[in-house]
Amino acid sequence: MPLEALDLSTEAGADQEFLYTLNFGPQHPATHTTLRLILTLDGETIVKAVPDIGYLHSGFEKLGEDLDFNQYVTIVDRMNYISPVANEIAWHHTVEKLLGIEITPRCKYIRTILAELARISDHLLCVGAAALDLGGLTAFLYAFNEREKIYNIIEQASGQRFHPSFTRVGGLMNDVTDDWVKLIRVFTNSFPKVHADVVRLLNRNKIFIDRTKGIGTLTKEEAINMSCTGPIARSAGVVRDLRKDEPYLAYGELAGSFKVACSKGGDCLARYLVRMEEMVQSVNIIKAAVENLPSGPVNLHTEDKLNIPDKAATYRSIEGLIQHFELFMWNRRFETPVNEVYGAHETANGELGFYLVSDGSAKAWRARTRPPSFIHFAIFPHLIEGHQISDIPAVLGSLNIIAAELDR
């Protein structure tokens, strides 16, 4: 990477000081994505770090003003592409809040299961990649093997592995099958062993502990003042989780099946430990949700005709055919109140929120995202100052920055 001398001159009589600029990224193995850090160095010590974003800008929020509330689900998929179904659930939660509708009990439980699978998938990548950056290749392979199983579950439900686009306003693209439930049971039964293997590989690994303990420390007060959420905040002692504090979906009914994972360390090691414990709690939620999965429809059928009719109704009844025709040819899908609303979910990286302004049409007048990665990347300079260049992968890996969430 190019090195450029910043200031080699000093006043007469003063100690000579050498400061250099190092461009870390945007194409760098340790950043995992298109991130750029402009580092000011005193030898190997980082004096200053300036994050430079914008290399993956896609106009996601502007697209929200051009696509209707169901079409936009394909775009929110691409924001945090490590756990896309969680983005979908949060987006349609906000739209349903705007419309004042409540989804069916079965849909609530299925969305809860999918949200927790997405959390596990996201944490597995974060932990596995962080271990890889610090020399732990085996843990990375174990983690990604489990992610493939989650992809199988997503594919079984939606037909797509990576960007499922599975949720709809008032429901889901389709109901799940008994085979889907069996896949989940197999996963929840096998996952604890893999989790234990990763714990044995990393928790007492001297290199991993030395590279993470005391590195990138964040205090509770700093976490609150810097608007941190999710594992970043909880690892610093902030006991806040929207699933408990502001229950949504089926979390209110499943509150007794999980605990909020917290720590007081505030360093890279604490963030790793919180994520590892959260995966255990997510498995508990999934097990409880599967065993209590209600029967009934997954889509909310109202007089407003929010949902696309079933194929059987479209092909075999004149009412279904007309409804399908109106929805797609004339876009008579939504009559929204002229209002503004904010909805947020507790995703793997923290509070993912969507702010909507509606003008009464079938699409948002303004769609704004509150992405956790954007907030957490802003604290990176505070965490890394005074550390060594070799500590950058440890701190970045513990924050789990997703570039598409930064740039939008």
UniProtKB/TrEMBL annotation:
Presence of the UniProt keyword Membrane in the record: yes
Reactions listed under catalytic activity: a quinone + NADH + 5 H(+)(in) = a quinol + NAD(+) + 4 H(+)(out)
Residue spans crossing the bilayer: none
Key words, A-Z: Cell membrane, Membrane, NAD, Quinone, Translocase, Transport, Ubiquinone
Membrane topology per record: Peripheral membrane protein
One Gene Ontology molecular-function label: NADH dehydrogenase (quinone) (non-electrogenic) activity
Superkingdom of origin organism: Bacteria
Residues covered by the NADH-quinone oxidoreductase subunit D domain: 133-408
EC number per UniProt: 7.1.1.-
Record's GO cellular component terms: plasma membrane
Coiled-coil parts of chain: none
Subcellular location: Cell membrane
Family: Belongs to the complex I 49 kDa subunit family.
Quaternary assembly: NDH-1 is composed of 14 different subunits. Subunits NuoB, C, D, E, F, and G constitute the peripheral sector of the complex.
Biological function: NDH-1 shuttles electrons from NADH, via FMN and iron-sulfur (Fe-S) centers, to quinones in the respiratory chain. The immediate electron acceptor for the enzyme in this species is believed to be ubiquinone. Couples the redox reaction to proton translocation (for every two electrons transferred, four hydrogen ions are translocated across the cytoplasmic membrane), and thus conserves the redox energy in a proton gradient.
Protein name: NADH-quinone oxidoreductase subunit D
Organism of provenance: Limnoglobus roseus
Organism ancestry: Bacteria, Pseudomonadati, Planctomycetota, Planctomycetia, Gemmatales
Gene: nuoD
